[in-house]
Amino acid sequence: MAGILALAGLAGTAHAAALSPDQRAEVVQIVRQALKDDPSILRDALAAMSSEDSARKDEAAASAIAAQQTALVSSPADQVVGNPEGSVTVVEFYDPRCPYCRQMLPIMAALVKADPQVRLVFKDIPILGPASVLESRALLAAQRQGGYMRLQDAIMHSSATPTPASLRAEAERLGMNGAQFDRDLADPAIQARLEENLRLAAALHVEGTPAIVVGKRMLPGAVELAELQDAVGAVRAR
Fold first, then answer.
1. For 65-79, what is each residue's pLDDT tens digit?
2. C-alpha of 123 from chain center
3. Is the N-terminal amide bond of 39 cis, ω within 30° of 0?
4. Nearby residues of 205 by Cβ (< 8 Å), 6 or more positions away
5. What is the pLDDT of residues 104-140, one digit of tens each?
6. What are phi and psi of 87, to 5 degrees?
7. Contact at 8 Å (CB) between 106 and 228?
8. Backbone angles phi, psi at 218, to 5 degrees
9. What is the bridge-based pairing of β-strands 88-94 and 118-124?
10. Pair type for strands 88-94 and 211-214
11. Are 162 and 131 in contact (CB under 8 A)?
């Protein structure tokens, strides 16, 4: 790291007074020799830059989460599992056709089962095309009959391309009223909810699914159960 500081000092000198061609060549030679003698200088510099970039992203995420806190954790329309009065809320933005979201399904179930004080909120954001939109609408239609989690489990374990008819048949198989399901599937209010979720995801700079919010921290992508539990524990420790 001392080498980095020395090079920074040279750069500052060059900025203050223009170097002659010979001086510039000498600086380049010094840099090249330093990197040749100790390649870890470049590695350390890149690591420092990456760490600073990560810290900036974390700070921006925390600020956005704080600004959107009510919409994030307190919408009465959202599907909630676990303890509705839990001490820590975990929010998952997900697409039902996303393979990584499907990978998270048993991990989220394990988190809720292992920790009776976790409140898990699902935010449906269909970003993978028409089939995603249709399945997300179907989940919200099923929610009106108390069947969200049953239908979620069914469609996220299926590789079939959904149709309105196939989703109605699945809803009926799971004990829901097919006619009501069809009406709710076509309700513009359901599409409006999905668009609201997408706007919230954009405000939080969600770049893909799954995206999991724990406290003021954003966990992008699929994560292990232990990492989720550590994030929940960190919220409790504050």
1. 999 999 999 999 999
2. 11
3. no
4. 60, 61, 64
5. 999 999 999 999 999 999 999 999 999 999 999 999 9
6. -80, -20
7. no
8. -105, 125
9. parallel
10. antiparallel
11. yes
